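STRUCTURE:
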């Protein structure tokens, strides 16, 4: 009984998290473009085929003129939820850790099975026919 309850709880928690992430996309608010920030030519590059503008999270300037990054934008709930995870930055030295310390090189193996090419005058062969007259 306890195993069934824990499985039900796990599945319900998974479904709840999936629905919450789906609804975060609907909580996303479109940017308010001002004439100072984006020129009409730049704004036309982002226009969708139906004529509407997509939802963008970009850096913004406050009243003092300071530029703020998009991670802590005050008007975007999805960015605030995503920045709450505080994931670590990916490692940049991954290639250095994967490299061999001795500097060995990998030698390509020769194939065991080679393709056997038949002479050009050989026709296709079919399986032998059983004796009909027999």
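SEQUENCE:
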């Amino acid at each position: 009984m306890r195993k069934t309850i824990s499985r039900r709880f796990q599945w319900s928690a998974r479904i709840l998290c999936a629905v919450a992430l789906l609804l975060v996309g609907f909580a996303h608010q479109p940017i308010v473009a001002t004439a100072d920030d984006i020129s009409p030519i730049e704004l036309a590059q982002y226009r969708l085929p139906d004529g509407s503008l997509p939802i963008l999270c970009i850096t913004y300037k406050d009243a003092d003129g300071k530029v703020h990054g998009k991670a802590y934008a005050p008007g975007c709930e999805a960015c605030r939820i995503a920045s709450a995870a505080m994931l670590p930055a990916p490692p940049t030295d991954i290639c250095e850790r994967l490299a061999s310390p001795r500097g060995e090189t990998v030698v390509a193996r020769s194939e065991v099975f080679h393709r056997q090419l038949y002479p050009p005058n050989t026709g296709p062969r079919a399986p032998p026919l059983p004796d009909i007259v027999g």
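REMARK: The first strand starts at residue 60 and ends at 61.
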